[in-house]
Amino acid sequence: MQGDMPEIEQAPEPPPPEHSPTQHTSPLGTSPLGTSPLGTPPQGTPPQGTPPQGTPPQGTPQPRRTLWRHRNFLLLWSGQTVSEMGSAVTQLALPLTAVVVLRASTFQVGALTAATYAAFALIALPAGAIVDRLAKRRMMIWCDAARMFIIGSVPLAAALRVLTLGQLYAVAVTAGVCTVFFDVSYQSYLPVLIDTEDLVDGNGKLGASQSFAQVVGPGLGGGLVGLFGAARAMAADAISYAVSVASLLAIRAREQPPHPESRQKLRKEVAEGLSFVLRDPILRKIVACTGTANLFFTMGTALQIIFLVRVLHVRPADTGLLIAVASLGGVVGGVFSGRLSRLIGSARIIWFSSLVLMLPSLVAPLAAPGRRVALFPIGLGVAAFGGVVYNVAQVSYRQAICPPRLLGRMNAAVRWVVWGTIPVGGLLGGTFGAVLGVRTTLWIGYIGAWAAGWWVFFSPLRRMRDIPAGVLEVNRAPGGRVPGQGGGQLPDGAGTHLGD
Predict the structure, then answer these.
(1) In sequence order, what DSSP letters do the residues of 253-284 get, joined into one string?
(2) Cα separation of 253 and 267, whole Å?
(3) CA of 305: how far to CAs of 58, 308, 319, 361, in Å?
(4) Which of these, 75, 144, 452, 455, could form a disulfide with 292 (CB 3.0-4.6 Å)?
(5) How many CB atoms lie within 10 A of CB 478?
(6) What are phi and psi of 449, to 5 degrees?
(7) Model's pTM, two decimal places?
(8) Tens of pLDDT, residues 390-442
């Protein structure tokens, strides 16, 4: 969502500049304008009134600094990349600990998964209102520090031989609570850290890191489980949270929390976030699309291991490899999301990614034993590619149109709806798989997830190429990008589920 630089009126015969012009940041792919000229500098001092060599004429807008040179963003990005890798290890090691170490039943493992997502359904809405009352970075630091101790308690208890299934449930619930607060703060903090014009680029880089973790994390987790055991492997996740805390502490951008006098009752603030989502005709359709896609796609992903092993006769050791290869589609989607948004349009890409880019994903249920096994990772990889492009586009749209004071509540309201359909999809997938068969349920899941894109196609987005500049200006503070922030110097599910 590139904004045009405002034209600067050229005054006649301007006085010589006393200071070097202010540096701005540049779009991705351009180099920052050098502060020194090419070649050898001239000897002596230039005559009075002559700009220093290498200085562009006054009134000429300078290109923006690329995010690759944005120190604060790089700290956030690098810390979260390490944290995502650790979380991917835990996604494998936690259920393995329950199954292998504690001999949990199928129902108990399912209950452990439900405990992981329970916090999103129970506290996401009040979490958004609470986050909007506090400084986002401080909240993120406390959440990561808490998760470091919570996850770290599992390998410690295993080493002391006191680990129980009850502790795993407690870890899943409490870590899930911290994740809710962290994710809402995380999405609301990015617009504080970078310019509105860089949100697509920034979200794309964060999405690529999440998808990269989905590729590398399971393999890394499998290796750690083989070397140290399932429970002790989770120590890697605890260490990754420590790295994230260190990176957040190193960020220098100042953040000013809302003034206490602007706060309202918690219930009223929660209602205000929901109301903002439901009133906006485009945002309302985005939420409907994302929630529907998650419902149907989870029906398919809940059965993908059974489909690979029992229908396609893939060896269990090879199933992780096929899924990891498919996850590369999400990495590619994160890398090219910014370019696709500029090529197709920042508004048009939202429905285009769902209905056009994800259409080839329908080949996945056509997979069969033999060479046609390859159709499954191809279809899943296409779904991951389109899903990341969609996520980057719709999250960037949400961040751009929402007033800064409502960002936390808006993000929490959206996540409460779109992630609330995930456990329902898992239950439906298991039920339909037992009654209709695995392949039939896979067809229902993939077709339903693709068809969810019609929600956003039949919305005002269909008539737009880019988000109108007027929409952005309404929600930006006069003279600044975010009130009290000065512009400053994204969670999960990017590879599988939609709606960060």
Answers:
(1) ----PPPGGG---HHHHHHHHHHHHHHSHHHH
(2) 31
(3) 63, 5, 7, 17
(4) 452
(5) 6
(6) -65, -40
(7) 0.60
(8) 988 888 888 778 887 777 778 777 877 888 787 777 777 777 877 888 899 89
